[in-house]
TrEMBL record:
One of its GO terms (molecular function) is structural molecule activity. The keyword Transmembrane helix applies. Belongs to the claudin family. This is Claudin 34. The keyword Membrane applies. It is found in: Cell junction, Tight junction; Cell membrane. It is a multi-pass membrane protein.
């Protein structure tokens, strides 16, 4: 597929660096994984034995819900059942409630950052838009991604620590769930959270590298022009 010279695509690619495009694409992946991690119920996976009413022997715990196959009659006819985790249940561990707030905030910040970077990329080839003005949107988006990545890391690291310590959860009596499992392990949502945080920080780093490269290149160009100018002046004085 050939792109005509002078087309909008060619003009856009000539004004946008690879680092900026990479930051944009990485940010899309970061937002997708951050939302999936936030909404998924697979933060912790508990294995339980001989618990009446639980069909599969597994309990899936997220930051918003706890789900399991419920078998009230213990006759094999089980169904998927979930209970909400909210502040009406003060016995639940703090890391769950804090993760709810931090992951939701990180998703919002990541969305805003992606919007800012998208706006900058869309307007970068318009002559009326000054580059320095548009770079502010890149920098603001990078800052939001940096903060979002830190918030996600706090959430997943805290919950990882709880899993590794085989921490108990004091569920309300109405849930009819045990407080301590036979064993537990990290679910896919925690791993997704780590990847999302890594992509958020990477996107911010790419914008930061772009900023440093532009400054360095501009400074080097100015120095070269100054040296060449002085040499030309010396040659003129010498010839006269």
């Amino acid at each position: 597929m050939w792109v005509k010279e002078g087309s909008l695509v060619v003009q856009w690619l000539s004004l946008v660096s690879g680092l900026q495009i990479s930051a944009f694409l990485v940010d899309i992946l970061a937002l997708s994984m951050c939302i999936l991690s936030t909404l998924s119920v697979n933060w912790r996976v508990w294995s339980v034995e001989n618990i009446e009413g639980i069909g599969s022997g597994n309990i899936w715990i997220g930051i918003w819900d706890v789900c399991f196959w419920k078998d009230p009659s213990n006759d094999g006819n089980s169904f998927w059942h979930c209970e909400d985790l909210n502040e009406q249940h003060p016995t639940l561990p703090k890391e769950i409630f804090i993760a709810q707030d931090l992951m939701a905030l990180a998703s919002i910040m990541n969305s805003v950052a992606l919007g800012l970077i998208s706006f900058a990329l869309y307007n970068v080839f318009k002559p009326r838009k000054h580059k320095d003005f548009l770079f502010r949107f890149f920098r603001l988006g990078a800052f939001l991604n940096l903060v979002a990545g830190i918030l996600v890391l706090i959430s997943v690291v805290w919950n990882t620590s709880a899993v590794l310590q085989n921490g108990e959860i004091d569920f309300p009596e109405t849930f009819e769930l045990p407080q301590i499992p036979s064993e537990q392990h990290m679910g896919p949502s925690i791993y997704l959270g780590y990847i999302a945080a890594g992509f958020q920080l990477l996107s911010a780093a790419l914008v930061g590298i772009e900023r440093c490269c532009i400054r360095t290149t501009t400074t080097d160009t100015s120095l070269i022009e100054t040296v060449v100018h002085h040499k030309n002046m010396d040659l003129r004085h010498g010839s006269s």
